[in-house]
Amino acid sequence: MKNKIINIKSRTSGLEIMNQQLARIVEEWNISKDVAFAMNLALEEITTNIINYGYKGLEDYDITIRFTLERHNLRIQIKDGAKEFNPLDIEDPDSLDKPLEERDIGGLGIHLVKKFTDNFSYRRTNNKNIVTLTKSLE
Amino acid sequence: MEITDRKTNNTIIVELSGRIDAGSTESTEKYFSALISENDQNIIVNCENLDYINSSGLRILIMSLKKQAAKEKKLLLCNLQKNIKEVFQFSGFTNLFKIELNLELAIKLIDS
């Protein structure tokens, strides 16, 4: 099992650092292109939600991300100190089948996280929001 | 992220190369916004070298499609990589964008 923990600030430059770190981990841990793509997407959607909704766009808060390589999975845990916020409570966009002019173009991110991960869970511990994403390496 | 474009007689062909991620969303949005407001032509976006897109990137493409539709112009995507096709499928956007086109087919569709 391998672990790596990074801390980023709640702003775009933090997300850029996160993406660079993930790219490095993918290379070091020899993760497939498909798993890397899926987990990068899931991670960006979760952290973007934390910044926009949890921290309301304020830029100086912390997000801690722990990457774990298990025997069969890549696991990513995302921890923030914003108010209680369970991304799984966000409803799936209902407009997926509607014509263009009726569609709401927001609310897609969490739907994509569900589709691209094998497991997506939330818990609230010690005043922190903790999201865990898991993806099979195969 | 690198964006280049070239004009043919009635179409602008845009080539995206790299990633539409947190670091490039803003510049990509500005690019498409300016392209559509300054031009009145059909657009084909060649995604052959586009390696990654997030939901913000999808929103940019949908907004661009809406703006084009308002001007009765087309916006087509072509040469989507496998993972990016999945993003469109999982989002339910395959009724808005054809995801199996290559450049030649896209040009034919524009001309038809």
What does the model show?
The complex is a heterodimer of chains A (138) and B (112). Chain A has helices spanning 12-28, 33-54, 109-116, and strands spanning 2-9, 62-69, 73-80, 119-125, 128-136. Chain A is of the alpha+beta class and 138 residues long. The longest helix of chain A is centred in the N-terminal third of the chain and has 22 residues, at 33-54. The radius of gyration of chain A is 15 Å and the shape is globular. By secondary structure, chain B is an alpha/beta fold. Chain B has a single domain, classed as STAS domain (Transcription Regulator spoIIAA, 2-Layer Sandwich). The longest helix of chain B is centred in the middle third of the chain and has 16 residues, at 55-70. The radius of gyration of chain B is 13 Å and the shape is globular. The chains are: A alpha+beta (138), B alpha/beta (112). Chains A and B meet through helix 1, helix 2 and helix 3 of A and helix 2 and helix 3 of B.
CATH third-tier fold name of chain A = Heat Shock Protein 90
**CATH fold assignment of chain B:** Transcription Regulator spoIIAA
Q: Could you say which structural class the secondary elements and strand pairing of chain A correspond to?
A: alpha+beta
> Span between N and C termini of chain B?
32 Å
As a percent range, the share of helical residues of chain B equals 40-55%
SS class of chain B? alpha/beta
SSE succession of chain B = EEHEHEHH
Low-pLDDT stretches of chain B are none
Strand content of chain A: 25-35%
Annotation field: number of helices of chain B: 4
